[in-house]
Amino acid sequence: MKKSLVLLVSLVFVASGLLAGCGKSDNEAKNTPTQEPAATNAATNEPKVNDEPFEITIRHTQVGEAKKFRLAMLEDVIKQTEAAVPGLKIKLDGVDSEVNRKEKLRGEMAAGKPPEVFDVFGSPDAQLYAKEGLMLDLTPILDELGIKEKFNTLAPFTYQDKVYGLPIGGSIEGFFYNKEYFEQKGLKVPATLDELDKLAETIKADGKVPFAQSSKDAWIPLMTTNNLWSYYAGADITYGFKSGTTKWTDPNVVKAVTKHQEWVQKGYYKKGELGFEYADMRNQVITGEAIMMMDGSWANSVFRDPAQAGDMVGKIGYFNMPPVNAGDKAIVMQDANNGYGFSSAVAEDPRKLAAVKEFIKNMWTDEMQLRGLKDDGVLPAMKISLDQMKSTSDDPLMQDIFKAVSEIGTSFPAFDALVQAEVNTALSMGIQQVIGGEIDPAKMLENVQAAQDAANATAE
After folding, report:
1. Which helix H or strand E contains 81, and what residues bound it?
2. Are residue 183 and residue 300 in the same domain, yes or no?
3. What is the pLDDT of residues 275-299, one digit of tens each?
4. Which domain holds residue 288?
5. In the chain, how many domains are there?
6. pLDDT digit string, tens, across residues 310-369
7. Do residue 63 and residue 199 come from a single domain?
8. Is residue 378 part of a domain?
9. b/e per residue, 63-95, with b = 16+ CB within 10 A?
10. Buried (b) or exposed (e) across 41-51, using 16+ Cβ within 10 A?
11. For residue 398, is it within any domain?
12. Rg (CA), the chain
């Protein structure tokens, strides 16, 4: 269903007052000052503020213990916004991230009725919804607030040179690890993938699980696979799948998926990973059952929280997935693709538009970006210097993450920001089949390429 883009309309309220003369006797007229009191006239002419109650909904994904700090930040921004906009009441609608992205929001967009504000991935989701005229063009709002140039990147949320969403934070992907265990066993952070292999074998021989993993949701193991193929095939290869200039069946992509399968077959992951939820793999690390875990930098908040990590607080470190060859620069997934979007229908209601503008004004500030970094370990989406980040959080785990950021030679966005939804689905199904031993990597990637060819053929 095609819709035209809804342009923001600037609304100007013109207040007009009618002067009414009061009947007076001649004597009263003689005794009345010729100049009316200024305060009386001003009060008469001022437009009445519309404080009638109205509501907007914010769909968020800050659900569960691991996201409690992010939820607290959102709630504080909501209080500020409600206080600044007369009559406004903001309703919070919390939904699991995967359910929101792949089910609920897609259904609402298909019906043309998303919430006023919603958690959304920039590329390809926001760009697709913007193309259909379902998202609010934020460009004039950002210009008015003077914050457009303050973001590290708005590329994932940009369509035809207009901005349709804002990233809430940045992230990288790498390995969390049990520092205490490494020290006790005399182990070192690996400098190459081969050293990582040998390290995993050593840990397994000691009776521990080398890599914590939960594969019930396919995006979790695909963090590992995505980083592997970016090393073996090059960080640029994923950009070419959608245009057809590169193929999923490239021998080096096959090699990367085969490496992932090899780790599964060698028992480097706990058996039953296809049935484990996201939180399960973090618990494997917290209990000491597993020693390393591939995850996004956002997971640091769990390991810094005594309520979640217990005695493991202060004992967890972080390092980038090491390169193939010693001395090579790290190639790391780094992006700012998760944030908030706004319904294009907001432009039709000046009060809702004012509420959205106030929400943006309060949410995207240096103060909130640094609070997100300090309280929740979310890397800033806005331009904050590395020195300022280091001084904001002296937590040892965060210092490891800052070091990992400084070591990045080449970065790339996650694969699901670069390919169509149906390709993501085929790859997700495929990696779970590979993990389960149902299909070999080459055949799986042939299936993914078939889905890619079909998606490319239907693209405009």
Report:
1. helix 68-84
2. yes
3. 999 999 999 999 999 999 999 999 9
4. 172-334+403-458
5. 2
6. 999 999 999 999 999 999 999 999 989 999 999 999 999 999 999 999 999 999 999 999
7. no
8. yes
9. beebbbbbbebbeebbeebbeebeebebeeebb
10. eeeeeeeeeee
11. no
12. 27
CATH code of the domain containing 104: 3.40.190.10
Handedness of CA 189, 191, 197, 201 (dihedral sign): negative
Residue 297 lies in a domain: yes
395 falls within a domain: no
Determine the residue type at 204.
K
Is residue 282 within 8 A of residue 316, CB to CB? The reply is no
Q: Taking the alpha carbons of 43, 48, 53, 54 in that order, is the dihedral positive or negative?
A: negative
Mean pLDDT of 203-225: 98
Which two tokens mark 278?
Answer: 């996201």
- If asked whether residues 226 and 161 sit together in one domain, one would say no
Q: Is 61 helix (H, G, I), strand (E, B) or coil?
A: coil
Which segments of 287-385 does DSSP mark as H helices, in order?
A: 300-303, 306-309, 350-363, 366-376
DSSP letter, residue 372: H
Q: Does residue 131 share a domain with residue 213?
A: no
Q: Which of 364, 92, 296 is nearest to 372 (CA)?
A: 364
pTM of the entire predicted model: 0.80
- DSSP β-ladder status, 54-60 and 117-121: parallel
